[in-house]
Specification:
The chain is α/β, with parallel strands linked by helices. It has one domain (3-378): Alpha/Beta hydrolase fold, catalytic domain (Rossmann fold, 3-Layer(aba) Sandwich), CATH 3.40.50. It has 15 helices and nine strands. It is globular and about 55 Å long.
């Protein structure tokens, strides 16, 4: 059973947030550091001042509540999700999956384009019934601290499959995702190809970097080596979150400025902003995503997923996705665009698009490009539809 849900943060929580922002104790790094040492101090100070004095959460809350939000109990999880039905008959059920450090908010721009493409001036010929969950441990889907599942993403994939089939009644559906959502989409397709008709990915998923480079052709081997070099340069967050996430969680859960610094560092280095973060995301958008983490106190549980999956990986390099796979690849995503042959080692690639711009947070940065490509891919294969 699903029940209607509305986002409503208490005044007390918002007053406490303002108080903590007001009493930030600022440090003094080298003036020349810009973003080289991590999140840029002058930019962070400006953003925190705006978060405290200019940002209107109630306005963002009203905008978020324009979507149809629900919760449902599955096992020990109270799963939060948006279920927005498409315009007209024959809509395709589509599950959209986010990653870290974003949230269901990743899809706030693209969601209306997918449910009503005519209004968005997209020549689609079909619309989607869109389901956007908050993954376990994110936002309003709380993750029980005592649960440490083996192969956690495989368990989460099972929860999402049950959401689509048992709660919403979609026996067959399609899935799209990036980052952790890419891994989840692949697991769902591998575990239940009878339900998952096709998947659309914006990256290969981190587990695919474990392929043995020894027998690979030169171009694929070079891509893998360059990806690993970049990972070593930019992987401090992974090392902490996959080993000692709780130690980091204490200061991030206590200080909204600390939370902003940690999350914004990833947004800056993973987007196509050309040195100006607000070319990719507005201040209100950045702060809405941060406020979701803050008011739900889920930064700890969202990071904990890294340690759980490192202990017991849910997707191996040898696992192959046999259902049709579409790839929409953005040039400034982590690691860049892989050779198609490399992707084909683990995925049944039926659709391949190299985008002209955009980074990791694809549906947020370039929603028109991604929406058009989703429609282009799913038009080419036999898909389940709602009458």
């Amino acid at each position: 059973m699903k029940r209607a849900f509305q986002i409503l943060v208490s005044d007390e929580v918002l007053r406490d947030l303002t108080r903590r922002l007001t009493h930030t104790r600022w440090l003094n790094p080298p003036n020349h550091s810009k973003w080289a040492y991590g999140t840029n101090l002058p930019y962070l100070m400006e953003l925190v001042a705006y978060w405290r004095d200019g940002f209107n959460w109630r306005e963002q809350e009203r905008e978020l509540n324009r979507f149809a939000h629900f919760q449902t109990a599955i096992d020990a999880y109270d799963l939060h999700f948006i279920h927005q039905r498409g315009k007209g008959p024959g809509c395709i059920p589509l599950l959209l999956l986010h990653g870290w450090p974003d949230s269901f908010y990743r899809f706030h721009k693209i969601l209306p384009m997918l449910t009503d493409p005519d209004a968005a001036d997209i020549d689609a010929g079909v619309a989607f019934d869109v389901v956007v969950p908050s993954l376990p441990g994110f936002g309003w889907t709380k993750s029980p601290a005592e649960i440490e599942p083996d192969q956690p993403l495989r368990q989460y994939a099972s929860l999402l499959r049950r959401l689509m089939k048992e709660v919403l009644g979609y026996d067959r559906f399609v899935v799209a995702g990036g980052d952790g959502g890419s891994v989840l989409a692949q697991i769902m397709a591998i575990d239940d190809p009878g339900s998952v008709a096709a998947i659309y990915l914006t990256d290969l998923g981190w587990n695919r970097m474990n392929i043995d480079p020894g027998p690979l052709p030169h171009a694929e081997k070079r891509y893998l080596e360059e990806s690993k070099k970049l990972f070593m340069k930019e992987s401090a967050y992974v090392m902490v979150q996959s080993t000692k996430p709780q130690t980091l969680a204490y200061p991030l859960n206590d200080s909204p400025t600390g939370l902003a610094a940690w999350v914004l560092d990833r947004f800056y280095f993973w987007c196509d902003c050309r040195g100006d973060l607000e070319k990719s995301f507005s201040r209100d958008e950045l702060l809405t995503n941060l406020t979701i983490y803050w008011v739900t106190q889920t930064i700890a549980s969202s990071m904990r997923m890294y340690r759980l999956d490192m202990k017991s990986p849910s997707l191996a390099a040898k696992d192959y996705v046999a259902v049709p796979v579409g790839l929409g690849l953005f040039p400034k995503d982590i690691g860049g665009i892989p050779p198609r042959e490399f992707a084909g080692r683990t995925l049944n690639v039926q659709h391949w698009t190299e985008m002209p711009g955009g980074g990791h947070f694809t549906a947020w940065e370039e929603p028109e490009l991604m929406a058009s490509d989703l429609f282009a891919f799913f038009r080419t294969i036999d898909l389940p539809v709602r009458g």
